């Protein structure tokens, strides 16, 4: 330690060092349904994130509505784990005991029994006519337009199948034709026949195993679909059927804590008692829905809303924790007699037994908020006597099909298998990444077209970079001097990485992140084009860094499987070999051989051989997914992720022209909108405006933040400029 004496002796000291100011880092915020705002994400214990996700009720094929939820949560989970480096523990359930499953399993079983008896044509005709009576009554009283349309369609199909059979029966014909017509009728009328058989014999189906076969099959199909979509499996999977003893214990404690009561062998949750107890609140997510009987009854299930069941409750808002089993329903022993779990209690008991008294994240579809999730919260907080069973509640947005609600009645019910027959898992995932996880996603031709174009744009970039990296060089030769262009591109690279980070911190906004990545590729393409024009090779290390970063981001999003350092893997699904390194040497041999043959053919003027060489390049190789091009006398070989055909190129050109025309028209239309009107139409985003039409409050009545106002002001000014141009051109024209 030097003193003043040292200074006097002329010893020089190190000058004072000032630390940098640094910049404030953005924090991860998530949209929390418990507050309906973006909240800073703070795990309860260090870096560990306990996460529970509501899984499917397995009684039918998984559809795009399921994919909406599970792909979106897979994206969020991967980003939290692989980008933000949280230690995520992910638990998901399978609902394999439920009113829908019981009904479907019973009906399937009774219909199989009916078919096994090989009924005669007359018997089938008679039974369908009998089954039609209650069905007609149901059709008459249905008010839901979707359901009505579905029932009407079914009625028409049954009538069409009935007519020829009735005619034949009246004329006394008995032959093979009448038998085959009866089978057609049986197939068309199976839904209403199953319903009729169930109403007659359903109560006699008592064997528990009958109710487990159906969910077991559909659970298997669900896992296959998730695997095909590249959705990571959960760390823990809980099945309701394996947790009945835990559910019984859970219900017992709720009753002991004073929040549940037994009635006729069923147990109900006392919503009034819970809501009026200090430290508790019922319906935290959707308080305005309390008393919505339609939603409550849907939550209770078809088999649990008969008049006698409804009269067992102290308040109409109470819901079943444990249901006394009626004849024809599976049952388990309990202190209240034979019964089965209510729907909402299942998740509470399973999540509680795995994750304990409080979890960081609970996820599910938007339509599960009330009553399912609100009831889960109430039960669990009644059991644990706390007010924070879930810290952050995340709900994925709805999915529409070409602007319409997806339903079987509208015949736009798309299973995951249907979707994967049209598009790859990567294309579907890119479509999801290009939209906000919490808003409605429209699955349409346009949505998928945007995803396909995005994939192609990125893939072209990856192929170009790979081609540059294949140019031979020695070890030291790969490090080239940086000029202004490289410094500029690198600066841009860092800015884009920062912008992607900010987007992901902002409620995991993958849509903006993908746009920033697109811009980065656009800038890299311009840089490569400039170098090419100057007959110079682009800087390989810099481009490699950019391509590796983009590849890493796509891997993080789950859009690239495998460990390729750059780009989308080439080859069909399930091929784990690196196709590129395997086939490239052979392709190079073929290319060199073709070049040698062409040279001789040109010298000797053998046109047939030249034509054959062209055929190999233009027809044979593209069919196999290989593109061969001449670049300034240098032959470039590229492996494509999708095959390309000459007519496709023509279509692409036409499409580009159409797009340009459409963009021009859209711009013209946009110019005509005065800036004072541009935000007023967006009522789903804003609720009040100032005199100039500038938004002051959002849809929920909250004041627009400074940051948001700044962004909106830019848009407003840009529109002002456009509108003035429009007025100017009108004046000049007149």
Automatic annotation (TrEMBL):
Q: Which CDD domains match?
A: CysRS_core (cd00672)
> What are the recorded GO MF terms, alphabetically?
ATP binding; cysteine-tRNA ligase activity; metal ion binding
List keywords of the entry alphabetically.
Aminoacyl-tRNA synthetase, ATP-binding, Ligase, Metal-binding, Nucleotide-binding, Protein biosynthesis, Zinc
Q: Give cofactor(s), names only.
A: Zn(2+)
Q: Sorted alphabetically, which Pfam families does this protein's record hold? A: tRNA-synt_1e
Residue ranges under compositional bias (Basic and acidic residues)? 1-10, 679-688
What does the record give as the function of this protein? Catalyzes the ATP-dependent ligation of cysteine to tRNA(Cys).
Q: What is this protein called?
A: Cysteine--tRNA ligase, cytoplasmic
Organism, per UniProt?
Electrophorus electricus
Q: What is the lineage of its organism?
A: Eukaryota, Metazoa, Chordata, Craniata, Vertebrata
Query: Corresponding gene?
Result: CARS1
């Amino acid at each position: 330690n030097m003193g003043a004496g040292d200074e006097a002796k002329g010893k020089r000291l190190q000058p004072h060092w000032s630390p940098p100011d640094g910049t404030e880092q953005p924090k991860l915020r998530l949209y929390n349904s418990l507050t309906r705002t973006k909240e800073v994400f703070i795990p309860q214990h260090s870096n560990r994130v306990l996460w529970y996700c509501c899984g499917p009720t397995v009684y039918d094929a998984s559809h795009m509505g399921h994919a909406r939820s599970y792909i979106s949560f897979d994206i969020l989970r991967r980003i939290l784990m692989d980008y933000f480096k949280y230690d995520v523990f992910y638990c998901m359930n399978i609902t394999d005991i439920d009113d829908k499953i019981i009904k479907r399993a019973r009906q399937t079983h009774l219909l199989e029994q009916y078919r096994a008896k090989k009924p005669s044509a007359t018997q089938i005709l008679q039974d369908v006519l009998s089954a039609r009576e209650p069905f007609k009554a149901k059709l008459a009283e249905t008010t839901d337009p979707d359901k009505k349309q579905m029932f009407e369609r079914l009625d028409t199909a049954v009538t069409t199948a009935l007519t020829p059979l009735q005619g034949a029966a009246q004329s006394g014909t008995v032959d093979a034709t009448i038998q085959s017509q009866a089978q057609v009728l049986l197939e068309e009328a199976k839904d209403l026949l199953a319903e009729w058989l169930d109403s007659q014999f359903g109560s006699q189906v008592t064997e528990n195993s009958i109710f487990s076969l159906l969910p077991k099959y559909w659970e298997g199909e669900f896992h296959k679909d998730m695997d095909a979509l590249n959705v990571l499996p959960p760390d823990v999977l809980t099945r309701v059927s394996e947790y009945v003893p835990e559910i019984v214990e859970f219900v017992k404690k709720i009753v002991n804590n004073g929040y549940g009561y037994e009635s006729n062998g069923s147990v109900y949750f006392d919503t009034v008692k819970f809501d009026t107890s200090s430290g508790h609140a019922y319906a935290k997510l959707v308080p305005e829905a309390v008393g919505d009987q339609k939603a409550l009854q849907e939550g209770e299930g078809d088999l649990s809303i008969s008049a006698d069941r409804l009269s067992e409750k102290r308040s109409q808002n109470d819901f079943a924790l444990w249901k006394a089993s009626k004849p024809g329903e599976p049952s388990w022993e309990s202190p209240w007699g034979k019964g089965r779990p209510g729907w909402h209690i299942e998740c509470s008991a399973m999540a509680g037994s795995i994750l304990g008294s409080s979890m960081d994240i609970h996820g599910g579809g938007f339509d599960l908020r009330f009553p399912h999730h609100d009831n889960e919260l109430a039960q669990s907080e009644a059991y644990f006597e706390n007010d924070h069973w879930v810290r952050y509640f995340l709900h994925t947005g709805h999915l529409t099909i070409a602007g319409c609600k997806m339903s079987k009645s509208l015949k736009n019910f798309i299973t995951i298998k249907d979707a994967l027959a049209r598009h790859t898992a990567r294309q579907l995932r890119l479509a999801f990444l290009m939209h906000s996880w919490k808003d409605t996603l429209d699955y349409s031709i346009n949505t998928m077209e945007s995803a396909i174009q995005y994939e192609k744009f990125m893939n072209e970039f990856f192929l170009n970079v790979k081609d540059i990296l294949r140019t031979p060089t020695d070890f030291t030769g790969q490090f080239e001097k940086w000029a202004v262009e490289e410094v500029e591109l690198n600066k841009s690279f860092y800015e884009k990485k920062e912008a992607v980070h900010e987007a992901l911190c902002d409620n995991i906004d993958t849509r903006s992140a993908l746009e920033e990545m697109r811009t980065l590729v656009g800038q890299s393409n311009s840089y490569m084009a400039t170098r090419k024009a100057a007959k110079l090779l682009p800087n390989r290390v810099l481009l490699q860094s950019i391509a590796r970063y983009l590849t890493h981001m796509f891997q993080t999003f789950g859009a690239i499987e495998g460990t390729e350092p750059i780009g989308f893997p080439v080859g069909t699904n399930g091929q784990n070999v690196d196709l590129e390194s395997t086939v490239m040497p052979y392709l190079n041999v073929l290319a060199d051989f073709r070049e040698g043959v062409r040279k001789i053919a040109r010298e000797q003027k053998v046109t047939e051989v030249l034509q054959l060489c062209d055929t190999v390049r233009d027809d044979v190789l593209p069919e196999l997914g290989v593109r061969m091009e001449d670049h300034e006398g240098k032959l470039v070989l590229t492996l494509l992720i999708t095959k390309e055909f000459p007519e496709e190129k023509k279509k692409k050109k036409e499409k580009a022209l159409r797009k340009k025309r459409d963009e021009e028209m859209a711009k013209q239309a946009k110019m005509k909108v005065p800036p004072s009107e541009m935000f007023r139409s967006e009522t789903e985003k804003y609720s009040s405006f100032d005199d100039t039409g500038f938004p002051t409050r959002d849809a929920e009545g909250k004041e627009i933040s400074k940051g948001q106002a700044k962004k909106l002001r830019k848009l407003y000014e840009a529109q002002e400029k456009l509108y003035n141009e429009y007025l100017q051109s009108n004046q000049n024209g007149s």
